[in-house]
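Bump. Still looking for DUF4446 family protein structure tokens.
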Amino acid sequence: MSPVWLLGAVTSLVIGVLAERILGIRARRQSEKLTALKERLDVYANYAKLASVRRVEAEETLAGLRREAAEVEGEILSLQSAVTDDDALTPMEFYCVDRVARSSGPLWYVAVEALDATAPWTGIRTYAIAAESAEDARKRIVERHPSPTAFTISPAAPLMLPER
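Sorry for the wait, here they are.
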């Protein structure tokens, strides 16, 4: 019986060695897979850190843009109110240079300020002038008030009369 036991023991030993090698190979493969998965997990963790940093940067940029947009909106509102204030300041009483109103050409208004006591009036007068250009309108006022020491003449501005 001992040869049968011996044969069984050797066979068991061979099967054990083969099983150990097979299981060792599988364990090595599983370890390599586990290592690769850990490396992949580290890469994804780095991506997550980078994404959170980028998100914070984007939020800061967005907050800055919102502040800038609010400032620009405030500036737009102030400019719009300045325009309406300027419209309110546009004189409604004008002196006319021409005796006969010209039907062609745009209207301009020019402000003339009396500077000294030799002027026939005090303060500012606004003139409505029909002319082809702002330079032409200002030139016609300069011809009417030629003394640069007695009068200050402003640049001509377009005159829009209100519809009635």
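Residues 75 and 101 are 40 Å apart (CA to CA).

Edit: fixed formatting.
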